[in-house]
Amino acid sequence: MIGRLTGIIVEQGLDGSCIVDVGGVGYEVHVPLGTPGRLPQPPAPAVIHIHTQLREDALTLYGFATLDDRSAFRTLISVTGIGPKLALGILSSLSAHELADAIHRGDRNRFKNVSGVGKKLVERLVLELKDKFHFGTGSVPAAPVRLVTPPAFASTLGTVHGALVQMGFKPIEAERAIEQITPSAAHKPTEELLREALAFLS
Question: Which of 108, 149, 111, 104 is nearest to 130 (CA)?
Answer without folding.
Answer: 104
